[in-house]
Amino acid sequence: MCHVIVTCRSMLWTLLSIVVAFAELIAFMSADWLIGKAKPASPEEVGDRTGAPREPYRPTLGIYGRCTRISHMQFSRRDTLCGPYAENFSEIASGFWQATAIFLAMGIMILCTVAFVSVFTMCVQSIMKKSIFNVCGLLQGIAGLFLILGLILYPAGWGCQKAISYCGPYASAYKLGDCSLGWAFYTAIGGTVLTFICAVFSAQAEIATSSDKVQEEIEEGKNLICLL
């Protein structure tokens, strides 16, 4: 018989697992890892039709994507174009970034799998006599290690030609040059920290769902068990 067990700790772990997976996925797909050096407006963009000055813009560069501005002569209209600069894996600007993409992708795949499984832990708490929470916690720890490897290797690629074109000639491995870090990089770091928090917290979720109070509710014949 299926018992639906919901506790504060198990629900919090489930929500955190989903948030972490989405955060890492969004960061990986974003082009806002590096914010390039400011580029002055072109003569056509110096002022709009009202005479207001145009501010310099800063293009952004991701692991495999980028955002830049395309100017149009008519009405000095400006469009920001975002998309992948690499059509395939081999065209990613740096070998270090290729390794980063591999490690991040592996970590994100594991996190997405855990996030999917975590939804069903309300009904199924063990499989083959092993706690799902403990297994998921172990997988989250492994995913966290992949994410750390990816984030460590990423700055080593700042010396590639693509990064230099955005960050200036002083950019090199682990040196930003004229660039600054974008929100995607910080989101990936925050998601990595939360990944290890989730891995540790999975043990608390397992304890909460196998507590004496839960067992008492099961013995009383209840199928829906909600405990604070």
Automatic annotation (TrEMBL):
Origin superkingdom: Eukaryota
Keywords: Fertilization, Membrane, Transmembrane, Transmembrane helix
Membrane topology (UniProt): Multi-pass membrane protein
Gene Ontology cellular component list: membrane
Chief location: membrane
Pfam families: L_HMGIC_fpl (PF10242)
Residue ranges crossing the lipid bilayer per the database entry: 12-35, 96-120, 132-154, 183-203
Location of the protein in the cell: Membrane
GO biological process terms, semicolon-separated: single fertilization
PANTHER family (alphabetical): LHFPL TETRASPAN SUBFAMILY MEMBER 2 PROTEIN, LIPOMA HMGIC FUSION PARTNER-LIKE PROTEIN
Family: Belongs to the LHFP family.
Name by which UniProt lists this protein: LHPL2 protein
Organism the protein comes from: Irena cyanogastra
Highest classification ranks of the organism: Eukaryota, Metazoa, Chordata, Craniata, Vertebrata
